[in-house]
């Protein structure tokens, strides 16, 4: 039995689509299995930040991996545009983390010092209120300052997802929509078989599970215990207003169209993607503390979405020990890491290995932590 593909990717979100795109454009025959709109797509609720300042402190491998992704984003976005004509909305130039007290300013000073000590290849500068006012006029009276980094930026998650899937198709990739993978198994002749509830099967020489919260069940069939859990984040958006914010921030982002995103929350709400007035009100209060003029803006939407969280919050890149050639890729930084997943990890998976993915991010670390 000859496998249908060189690589099957389960999961049509940002992670799976980036992996599939990267593998296909390097010449592999890739099938992308997408559960469709019933999936808990993290890209629906992603704030759209490529965010590096402070990421990975105390975890050098994750820090350097993330920074490399930030450095690759201009190339990644330009490549997608050349291939598809879709502008992902990438805008670099640095991101702002606001401080509302001297205590918060001191915490940012400490973060900057630790980043330097741990060798982060990122420039982070602390701006006082006067310097901040020059690049973010209209800040509220409580704002003491902000940190700004050279690599942070913003992007449209949905346009990025569209560009990845369009580019994947243009390179000859096959997307199967409304496919819910129920069973994965190793096959001596065909590599790996992925089967749906109605009995439809696809085979591939290699397999990548990037199914978000669905990865727990599928990976367990190949001997990998991931322990992923959902974390809900809520975001609110205003109507279009005159441009006032040139940089993305940790709490507010103004899109190119003029709408303003306020977010986001961190909630243990199970698999609920709902919203509640208490959280929405809290996000609005936080936004108007930073920019009082936002009190005149009109809210038009609020939504919730689920992040995919591991026990320690770090990504998982692993190969099934009893099924070589089957891999799991999962993280809650699908936007930031999309450039690396597409340009480097996807091609590596097509060849049957994890390439540059840090070895410290294998799932066995959880067993070691509890031993």
UniProtKB/TrEMBL annotation:
<dbReference type="Pfam" id="PF01266">
    <property type="entry name" value="DAO"/>
</dbReference>
<feature type="domain" description="FAD dependent oxidoreductase">
    <location>
        <begin position="6"/>
        <end position="344"/>
    </location>
</feature>
<dbReference type="InterPro" id="IPR036188">
    <property type="entry name" value="FAD/NAD-bd_sf"/>
</dbReference>
<dbReference type="GO" id="GO:0005737">
    <property type="term" value="C:cytoplasm"/>
</dbReference>
<keyword id="KW-0560">Oxidoreductase</keyword>
<dbReference type="InterPro" id="IPR006076">
    <property type="entry name" value="FAD-dep_OxRdtase"/>
</dbReference>
<feature type="region of interest" description="Disordered">
    <location>
        <begin position="352"/>
        <end position="371"/>
    </location>
</feature>
<dbReference type="GO" id="GO:0016491">
    <property type="term" value="F:oxidoreductase activity"/>
</dbReference>
<protein>
    <submittedName>
        <fullName>Oxidoreductase</fullName>
    </submittedName>
</protein>
């Amino acid at each position: 039995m000859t496998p249908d593909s060189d690589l099957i990717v389960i999961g049509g979100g940002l992670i799976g689509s980036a992996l599939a795109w990267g593998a296909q454009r390097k010449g592999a025959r890739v099938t992308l299995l997408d559960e469709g709109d019933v999936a808990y797509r993290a890209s629906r609720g992603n704030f759209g930040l490529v965010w590096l300042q402070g990421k990975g402190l105390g975890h050098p491998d994750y820090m350097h991996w993330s920074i490399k992704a930030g450095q690759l984003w201009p190339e990644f976005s330009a490549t997608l545009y050349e291939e598809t004509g879709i502008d992902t909305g990438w805008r670099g130039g640095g991101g702002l983390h606001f401080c509302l007290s001297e205590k918060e300013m001191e915490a940012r000073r400490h973060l900057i010092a630790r980043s330097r000590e741990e060798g982060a290849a990122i420039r982070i500068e602390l701006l006082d209120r006067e310097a901040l006012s020059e690049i973010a006029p209209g800040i509220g009276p409580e704002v003491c300052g902000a940190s700004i980094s050279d690599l942070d930026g913003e992007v449209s998650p949905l346009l990025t997802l569209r560009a990845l899937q369009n580019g994947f198709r243009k390179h000859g990739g096959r997307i199967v929509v409304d496919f819910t993978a129920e069973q994965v198994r190793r096959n001596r002749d065909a590599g790996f078989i992925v089967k749906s509830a109605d009995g439809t099967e696809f085979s591939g020489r290699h397999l990548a599970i990037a199914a978000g919260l669905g990865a727990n069940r599928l990976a367990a069939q190949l001997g990998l215990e991931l322990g992923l859990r959902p974390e809900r984040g809520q975001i609110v958006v205003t109507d279009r207003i005159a441009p006032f914010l040139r940089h993305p921030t940790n709490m507010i982002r103004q899109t190119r169209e003029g709408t303003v995103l306020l977010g986001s929350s961190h909630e243990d709400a199970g698999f609920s993607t709902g919203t509640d007035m208490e959280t929405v009100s809290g996000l609005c209060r936080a936004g108007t503390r930073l920019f009082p003029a936002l009190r005149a803006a009109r809210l038009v939407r609020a939504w919730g979405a689920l992040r995919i969280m591991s026990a320690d919050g770090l990504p998982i890149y692993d190969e099934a020990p009893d099924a070589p050639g089957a891999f799991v890729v999962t993280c809650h930084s699908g936007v930031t890491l999309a450039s690396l997943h597409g340009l480097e990890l996807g091609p590596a998976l097509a060849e049957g290995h994890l390439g540059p993915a840090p070895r410290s991010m294998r799932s066995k670390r959880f067993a070691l932590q509890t031993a």
